[in-house]
Amino acid sequence: MSVNIYVATSAEDLKKFPDFAIVKIEGQKSKTLRQFYEHIAEVLEFPDYFGFNLDSLDELLNDLEWIDDHKLALYFCHTEDFISQERNPEKLSNLLHMLDATAEDWKWLDEDEEVFAKELVFIFEDSPRLRDLLKQEEIGFAFISRDADSAG
After folding, report:
1. 152, 17, 123, 72: CA torsion to nearest 10
2. Gene3D superfamilies annotated for this entry (predicted)?
3. pLDDT value at position 41?
4. Spatial contact of 137 and 93, defined as CB atoms under 8 Å apart
5. 1, 16, 73, 131: which is deepest, by most CB within 10 A?
6. Closest by Cα among 29, 53, 58 to 42
7. Are 73 and 121 spatial neighbours (Cβ–Cβ below 8 Å)?
8. Whole-angstrom Cα distance, residue 35 to residue 83?
9. Could you tell me the CA-to-CA distances from 44 to 24, 31, 101, 129, 137 in Å, in that order?
10. How confident is the model at residue 151, as a pLDDT?
11. Residue 45 — φ and ψ, nearest 5°?
């Protein structure tokens, strides 16, 4: 599997994705999973049928037909706050695994399917909490900056 999750050590790192539409997900607006669902639904302009749960999020991120851009990067900033007030820590782990799998799924889209292919990546602002969780969950990631540590 290739890398689908990147860690940015500064906002300058985003310049390494010049062909991507970058959508910002604010960690301060996503301290719980419900807040995250509400925030991502707003910034990605999800259809009205979004169910505000992981299965529905997975379904919509595997669709994205209402988004014209073919290359999309979701940039999560303030990751120290991201899903920081959720009582069940497994929920963040499940979300990260789903995001990684969804980005990978787009790479293997069958040419016969009547879906316009997208390239989807997830970029997280660096924080020790996020790095530790990605390593603990064995989710592959890479630092964007050449000066930072190598891939996790």
Report:
1. -130
2. Barstar-like
3. 98
4. yes
5. 73
6. 29
7. yes
8. 8
9. 10, 18, 19, 25, 27
10. 46
11. 50, 55
- Does this model's pTM top 0.85? My answer is yes
Identify the DSSP state of 30.
-
Question: Measured between alpha carbons, how far is 104 from 24 in angstroms, rounded to an integer?
Answer: 20
Q: Kindly report the backbone phi and psi dihedral angles of residue 65, in degrees, each rounded to the nearest multiple of 5, phi listed first.
A: -65, -25
Cα separations in angstroms, 3 against 40, 86, 87, 88, 104: 22, 27, 29, 26, 8
Residue 149: per-residue pLDDT: 44
Nearest Cα neighbor of 22 from 124, 146, 108, 140 is 124
Domains in the chain and their CATH numbers? 5-143 (3.30.370.10)
DSSP character at residue 12:
G
54: its two tokens: 């992981």
What's the half-sphere exposure (Cβ side, CA atoms, 13 Å) at 146?
A: 1
3-class SS letters over 102-137: HHHHHHCCCCCCCCCCCEEEEEEECCHHHHHHHHHC
